[in-house]
Structure formats: C-alpha cells, structure tokens
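Researcher: Structure prediction, please.
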Amino acid sequence: MLSKLTIVGLSQFQPDIWDNLNLPEGIDKEVFIDEVIRQGGEFSLLYPDADFMKYQIGVFSRKWYHNFERWLKAYNFEYEALYNLDVKATIEETGTNKEVASKKGTSSNDTNTSGTTTNHNNVENTAHSSGENATTKQKAAYDSGSFQNTEKEISGSTLNSNGGTTENGNTSNNQSTNITGNTTEDASANQEHNIITEEYRRGNQGVTMSQQMLLAEYNAWRSNIYVMMAEVFVSEFCICIYN
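Model: Predicted structure follows.
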C-alpha cells in the first residue's frame, strides 16, 4: 500500500496552513474546515508541501470570496415560499404646469352723450261765466212713457269775470356724459409639481400552483452552503481516488 499525504495529516503536521483562509462574514471557518476534512480527509493532496499548500489556500480564498459571499446572501434572503410575485415600482414625475401661459390685453371704451331737452308748455285758459247753472230731475209714472220734471236745482258761479287763467311751462334739460375706460389684464401662473408614486404588488399571480412552489422550496433547502463550499475545495486540492 502506497503512503499518501492527506489534508488530515497535513493539518496535524502544520496547523497554520489554514491561516490564509479568508471567508465572508457570516461563514463559520471551523465548520468549513470540518466539512472539508469530512469530504476529502482520505484523499491525497495535490500539493503535499505544507508551505505551498498554505499559500494556495490563500489564493483559493481570494478567488472564491465573491462567489461565497453571493451564496451566503442568497442563503439568507427573506421571501415567501408560496409567493411568485414581489414587485415594487417607484414612478417620479417632475414638471411645470402652465395654467394661463400669458394673457395680456388693453381695452378702451369711450362714451360721450350730450343732449338738451327743452319743453315749452303754454296753456292759456280763459273762462267767463256770469249766470246760472240749472240741474233738472225728471221722473216717469208707472203707466206713462213720458218723463215729467220733478225737481230743479239752480246754482251760480263766476270764474275770472275779468280775465282768465294762464299757465306757462318752460323746462330745459341739458345732460352730458363722458365715460372713458382703459383696462389691462396680465394673468400668468406657473405651477411646478413633483409626484412620486409607489406601487407594491406581491402574492401568487396564478401561473404556478402552490404545490409546485412548495416542492421547489423543499429542493432549494436540500442544499447546504458549507457542503457546496467544501466540494469546491476538495475538487481543487484533492486527488479523489478510492483505494
């Protein structure tokens, strides 16, 4: 049986070979080393020299650091297993509204009204009366068609026995109106707006059945981040030959 140097033997001979191992925060270094030994402890090492192996482990850390970091982020991602829709959209609208862009005008109204009204009323009445005014009342018998005088009233009056009454009217109306108007209108309004709309939709949009998503969740968590990382290490540093 040929002798071989394994990762277990090299770790016991020179434990500082793991000093250059640098893993993302959140990854337990001791758990990772234990998983590497569990998977490749019986395989021969590709680099049996301890110092060179220590250097190569540092190279391995720098090369796979970002990959392990992304794996860890996905491993710790919070989500709802039975939701296949989780969308958040932000819409921002910025602009200027011009309600009345520009309205300028001048209007002038001139009104000039002038008039003269002259009314002349000349009424001259002359009444002359010297005598009597007689009022006679008549009545017919029940069996007669002719009227007979029954009563007579006599009154006398004298109005301006020497002249009469004279009325003279003279009215003059002179009206002058002058109206001048000058109106200027300047209306301008600029309104700025900034509207932010957020839309958040989540849940099951009905494309995939809940049972399918539940099965996918189960298969996703069958994987273990330490197992996957150790597999990468063993594939790079171990000669996987079973005796």
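Model: The longest strand covers residues 85-125.
Researcher: Thanks, that helps.
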